[in-house]
Amino acid sequence: MFFDTESSAILLLDDGTYFEGISFGSVGTISGEVVFNTGMTGYQEVITDPSYYGQLITFTYPEIGNTGVNSNDNESSTPSVKGVIARQISKISSNWRYEITFEKWLKEQNIVGIHGIDTRALVRHLRESGTSNGIISSDPNYSIPQLFSILEKSPSMSGLNLVDKVTTRNSFKVNSLSSVIFDQRIKNIKENPYKVVAIDFGIKQSILDRLVAHGCEVTVLPSNASISDVLGLSPEGVFFSNGPGDPSTVDCGIQLAKKLIEYEKIPVFGICLGHQILGLALGGKTFKLSYGHRGLNHPCGLNGKVEITSQNHGFALDSESLNSEKIKITRLNLNDQTVAAISVIDRPFFGVQYHPEASPGPHDADHHFNHFVTLIEDRRRIVD
């Protein structure tokens, strides 16, 4: 009997594998793609990252929740994950910045969780069998056959456009620095800031913070923005953001990128999904990774130069599909040799698969923001 106590919960995978555990957060039943993140820190940033929309996130670090939750570390206004899977949850929040305990926050945000399971066994299963759909339930009214029936209706992430679920509905402007005062990275506020248009496919707050810190004034547009919407703002640079789902389904973004490539003049920078959209617009193809890259210590580099990166993606560009006469692969993921960064040979366009803004993660790759504003500054000198 699975639900033998009021706090019982179950995680059921679509291949029949199941794990019994203890319910935390909101009581309920939720299904989605089961993925895992190997980072030791940053659970709040992960849960509020729009790129995780619709997923059940497994944290491999043995205990989470010990620093509570605070409003400054959110990557979006509301959590994006559907469910949380953990080995152990801390009942005590011990951090000078915390405002609410982790479990109370999950309840308020209506996120279903399960803990007390062997997350090492779960991750080993996902690595060997590939990412699969799953269902978390703490509702004793459901039988196993009923849970399977719900699970069978869960869509595959392949072919799924989730950008519409997370993009802004209205444009807005960002020109103020992050309120996290102890962030010691570069803060280069300019009297004449670089005018950047960011296309929101699920943009993280920390990306906006880093663009502003590198001297940009950012106008954020919805994912369905047209070329006339963009050029009407007279931008000096265009940014394509991260986001959830299958990049090949984001037709509006791909078409906009193609128009910008034809326009030639404006520097374009893409991160994660935005990087993939640039590659697709240039004639490349994407594919789904077996279990994705989600963690804070992924080495990326080429020709002896390596940076340790924060990553969160389930798709990647197919290196064989990229036209070497147009596109230069500038970095590879050194764990599996997948494409980690590209640049366009005769255009001021580039993209990185990983997250140079970190949050959470190492700051090795922050220089990509500087490269973006350097391209803008170079063009500004030519125009002036």
Defining key terms:
single chain; 384 residues; alpha/beta; Glucose Oxidase, domain 1; Rossmann fold; 2 domains; 10-stranded mixed β-sheet; 7-stranded mixed barrel; 10 helices; 19 strands
Task: Give a summary of the structure in a few sentences.
The protein is α/β, with parallel strands linked by helices and about 375 residues long. It has helices at about 45, 100-110, 120-130, 145-150, 165, 205-215, 225-230, 250-265, 275-280, 365-384, and strands at about 10-15, 20-25, 30-35, 55-60, 65, 85, 90, 110-115, 130-135, 170-175, 195-200, 215-220, 235-240, 270, 285-300, 305-315, 325-335, 340-345, 350. The protein has 2 domains: about 10-150, Carbamoyl-phosphate synthase small subunit, N-terminal domain (Glucose Oxidase, domain 1, 3-Layer(bba) Sandwich), CATH 3.50.30.20; about 165-384, Class I glutamine amidotransferase (GATase) domain (Rossmann fold, 3-Layer(aba) Sandwich).
